[in-house]
Design goal:
The termini are far apart. With 146 residues, the protein is mostly helical. Strands 1-2 form a two-stranded parallel sheet. 69% of the residues lie in helices and 3% in strands. The chain contains 5 helices and 2 strands. It has one domain (25-134). The chain has helices at residues 2-18, 36-43, 47-77, 83-114, 117-129; strands spanning 26-27, 133-134.
Length: 146
């Protein structure tokens, strides 16, 4: 009885104290996924930032289209009758999904670098509210910003 109680208490404390040790998901803006107008409104982007955002959105959409077509081709042409074939399919699929995430993070980082200090602080605040890890960049300094 005491042994099982100790085991339960130990498990509880390990789960409780290690809860914050696990990494959080990255806090992405979703450039190319989120409507540009939403990002412009939320972060009050200036004209230069808005123009860059439009270009970045197109870049993400183009790249993600290519990766989505690659995924579709992998699914269509890849045999799935043995465990080894399924394992290879999973590996190729994971590689493409990782590439998609990498593209998204890279493009989001390009926009975040254009943020001024107040915009970047707002981004940090929103990430904290969503329990996500913000992407770390050095915000730009603008004379025409608030």
């Amino acid at each position: 009885m005491i042994k099982s109680l100790n085991l339960i208490l130990t498990t509880f404390f390990l789960l409780f104290f290690t809860h914050g040790v696990f990494s959080q998901e990255d806090c992405i803006l979703g450039v190319g996924i989120t409507k540009d107008s939403v990002l412009v409104d939320v972060f009050q982007l200036n004209a230069i930032q808005t123009e860059k955002l439009t270009g970045y959105s197109e870049e993400v959409k183009y790249t993600q289209d290519i990766l989505n077509k690659t995924l579709q081709e992998i699914r269509e042409r890849h045999p799935q009758s043995t465990v080894a074939e399924l394992s290879k399919l999973a590996s190729e699929y994971t590689f493409i999904m990782d590439s998609m995430f990498s593209v998204q993070t890279t493009i989001d980082k390009k926009l975040l670098v254009l943020f001024n200090e107040k915009q970047y602080t707002l981004y940090h605040t929103l990430c904290a509210e969503a329990f996500k890890s913000p992407i770390v960049v050095v915000p730009a300094v603008y004379r025409d910003s608030l």
